[in-house]
Amino acid sequence: MITFLDLSKRLARRGHAVTFVSTPRNAAKLQGSIPLELAAHLCIVRLDLPGVDGLPEGAESTADVLPKKVGLLQKAFDGLAAPFERLAIGAVLPPARRPRSRGSSTGSSSTSLRTGSGQLLNSIRPSGP
How many CB atoms lie within 10 A of CB 83? Predict the structure, then answer.
């Protein structure tokens, strides 16, 4: 994770817009390590893991689960495919050209806020049961 953040910072220093996607707890850890001068180019986006029966509440990494529960964590990460797709589509297509939600009346909830250092922090919650 740190290696990817270092790469993100290098790209941002060169003027590239970078979106770093991570789970909420990891995003919170990373948020404070982004220099203010990079805030305009480097955005950390949180994707909340969907709940999976048997997965401990708040588990976001293999350090949070017993080895026999790693499969449940993988299942939760597989559940991020649709929210990540919506994030990616929203980043490249203007609103009028974005596909409409298929088969779900609930969609996803999305919030944005500015942190104390002025960075934009997005939170996208998966839709579904």
Answer: 22
3-state SS class at 54: coil
Give 77's contacts (C-beta < 8 A, 6+ positions apart): 49
User: What is the sign of the dihedral through the CA atoms of 87, 95, 8 and 109?
Assistant: negative
Q: Give pTM, 2 decimals.
A: 0.65
Angle CA 74–25–15, to nearest 5: 100
pLDDT in tens, 1-32: 788 999 999 999 999 999 989 999 989 988 88
pLDDT tens digits, one per residue of 25-76: 989 988 888 999 999 999 999 999 999 999 999 999 999 999 999 999 999 9
The Cα–Cα gap between 108 and 104 comes to: 9
Q: How far is CA 39 from CA 12, 59, 94, 114, 116, in A?
A: 9, 28, 23, 10, 11
Please, are residues 106 and 127 in contact by the beta-carbon 8 Å criterion? yes
